[in-house]
Structure formats: C-alpha cells, structure tokens
Design goal:
39% helix, 2 domains, three-stranded antiparallel β-sheet, Aspartate Aminotransferase, domain 1, alpha/beta
Length: 379
C-alpha cells in the first residue's frame, strides 16, 4: 500500500541533521552565534535590512505588535481568513480587531474589504495597524494597503507566515511592509521545527524587537553585568540548535520553492475537468511559493458534507485540511464583537480544501490525489 500523503510535511536531509549535531557539540545551545548568523542570512534572502529570529510565527506577530506600541484603544484590521494567531497578536496587546472580508476565490483580503473595515474602525477605537495575510503563499496586492495605511497614519505588519519565497515583481513580502512575520513550522516552506522571524526596515525597530524577545531587557555595551528591564517583554528567544537547522534549510529554499511550483503545475494540469463541482484556485499576482495547494468544491451541489469527503480521501491515503475557519466566526471573537456577515470569507471556508503539497512528493503522488478525488467526487 502506498504511504499516507499528509497535506504538508517537512523535508529533512542528512546535512540538516549534521548541522544540528554540530550545534549540539558547540559551546552555545542558545543565544549564541548561530542566531545572528541565521538572522543575517535570512535578511539577505528576503532583501530586508534587518531580521530578528524568535521561537514561532505567533511570537513574531506579537513582537511586531508590541514594537509599534499597540495597546488598549487601538484597532487592528485583520482578514477573517487566516490562522487565529494573526488576530490574537493584537488582542495580546489589549487592542481590538476589525475583520476584513476576502476574495472568495483566493482567500486574500481585497481593497473593498479593507476599505469597508476601515470605515467601521471608529466604533471600536483608533486604527493602529493593518495586517495583510499572504495566504497559501499567494500575495495580497500591497499597493492599496500601503496607500490606505499612509492616509490613515497606520502601521503595516504583513503576516507572511505562508509566503517565504513568494515574490511580486521580484519583491518579497518583507520589502513592501514595515515589518513582515514568518513561520518555520514543519509544514511551511522551510523549517526550524518551531520558530519565526520578523523583518524590519530600520535599526531602531530591530532593536525594539530584540528587546521584546528577551523580557524587555536592554544591556549596556560597556558593563556586561548590568541590565535594565525597560518594557514588559517575553522569553521569545530561539535556540542556536534550531537556527543551525534554519541556516541549513535556508540554503535549500530555492529548491524547495521550485519543487512546490512544479507540483502545483502538475495539479493544474490534472485537476481541471475532473469534476464539475471542483475548481482550482487562481494564484493571483507574482510568483507564489505555494505553501498550500487549495481547490474549491461545491459540496452543496455534490450533496455531501466536506467532512465525509475528507474522511473518504483519508481512507484512500490522502490527507487534506481546511485553511481556515473564518476568525470572525470563532466563539471568542463572535462573543466579543457579535457575528457580522463577511460573505467572501464564508464562501471561501464553505468550499475550500487544501491538498497535499510538499517537496518530498513524487510526481506520481499528484496522480494518486487526482485519482482519489475522482473516486470520491464520483466523476
């Protein structure tokens, strides 16, 4: 029987293992030279002036929110189709959240959805930040986002956790936002096991990020025994062990991205016409790295619930996932703000399914997925 295909999986090779083993034998397991080396290499890879590593994508978002002074009375705009961490990062700081609608075909925040959300902000406070989400590796059009943010004197913090390796007109997410946040979870484009990164455009922002990463403490360059806690920070540090893995993986990023795009192209060729109830999703602008490969299925027309389809695919050895349940419908946020209609987000959620995509897949695995879909959808 063919092995089970999860929707995402890390690619760990012998040189990755060697890099971690070398770090384990070194003098530093944490707060050592591998952290700064990883930050420097990452900043160069995404064409950012500065990069600050931390222990997860959620920590990255929270650090970014703290670094711009987010607090009570502030409102942050977040698209409803994202992982809950994007919105939670604002709430961690005491700010409120206004959810924006998305394109039902791509899941990306739209200019109309953003403008509608901006128009509602006054009822909750003052607009502090807009957090566009580059979903599945597909990038939001940042021109209207930055234009509107400038007009409103708001910060732009990009949730780029899905978009490492993605570009539009040769520009990475880090180049078109004040700060961009990345995740290195095992299903992402590259991994450190757990880990994250925030890119910044100026040295002052980078120093504030580092301060919040380590308990809000700053140290004197002239007296290593003295330190001052000047803000309420957290222990969001990432160990050298994980940064050693990150450095090894970062060298493979172009190969990983190329392979993801090749798998997506095979899906694009295999799936159209498979069933009248299934449609592939457009990639949008630029060259997405495609953290996820999503399709839309009209489950109502099919006469089956999504869970039943997912269960049948699993029985055939195919793992799928839902990205995401609209955050404005999550019980915590529904209780806090009430439930408003965001039809784009709700349509995306009702129809979208993520199929397996990761560099270790064989070309023939795409055929397995297509065959299983054909069987389950009755085409």
């Amino acid at each position: 029987m063919a092995p089970f295909l999860p929707y995402g999986r890390q690619t760990i090779e012998d040189d990755d293992i060697h890099a971690v083993a070398t770090a384990l034998r070194s003098d530093f397991l944490t707060t050592g030279p591998a952290v700064e080396a990883f930050e420097t290499a990452f900043a160069k890879a995404v064409d950012a002036p500065y990069a600050v590593a931390c222990n997860g994508g959620t920590a990255a978002l929270h650090m970014a929110m703290m670094s711009i002074g987010t607090g009570p009375g502030d409102v942050c705009i977040v698209p409803s189709i994202t992982f809950v961490a994007t919105a939670n990062a604002a709430r961690f700081c005491g700010a409120e959240v206004m959810f924006a609608d998305v394109d039902p075909k791509t899941g990306l925040m739209t200019e109309a959805g953003l403008m509608d959300a901006v128009g509602k902000v006054a009822g909750r406070g003052r607009l502090k930040a807009i957090l566009p989400v580059h979903l599945a590796g597909k990038m939001v059009d940042m021109t209207p986002v930055n234009s509107l943010a400038g007009a409103c004197n708001a910060h732009v913090i990009a949730d780029s956790c899905h978009a490492l390796g993605s570009t539009v007109n040769g520009r990475s997410p880090a180049q078109d936002a004040e700060m961009a946040c990345y995740s290195f979870h095992p299903v992402k484009t590259m991994t450190t096991g757990e880990g994250g990164m925030v890119t910044a455009q100026d040295a002052g922002a980078a120093e504030r990020l580092k301060m919040f990463r380590s308990h809000g403490i700053i140290r004197s360059p002239h007296d290593t025994a003295h330190y001052d806690m000047v803000e309420l920070g957290y222990n969001y540090r990432i160990p050298d062990i994980l940064c050693a893995l990150g450095l090894s993986q970062l060298g493979k990023l172009p190969r990983f991205v190329e392979r993801r795009r090749a798998i997506a192209a095979l899906y694009d060729a295999a799936l159209p016409g498979l069933s009248p109830v299934l449609q592939t999703c457009p990639n949008g602008a630029g060259d997405p790295a495609l953290h996820l490969y999503t399709v839309q299925i009209d489950f109502a027309a099919l006469g089956r619930e999504r869970k039943a389809v997912m269960d049948d695919l699993r029985a055939l050895g195919i793992g799928t996932q839902v990205h995401y349940i609209p955050v404005h419908l999550q019980p915590y946020y529904a209780a806090r703000y009430g439930v408003e209609r965001l039809p784009g987000a709700e349509t995306w959620h009702e129809r979208t399914l993520s199929l397996p995509i990761f560099p270790g897949m064989a070309d023939s695995d795409v055929g397995r997925v297509a065959e299983a879909l054909s069987m389950v959808l009755g085409s």
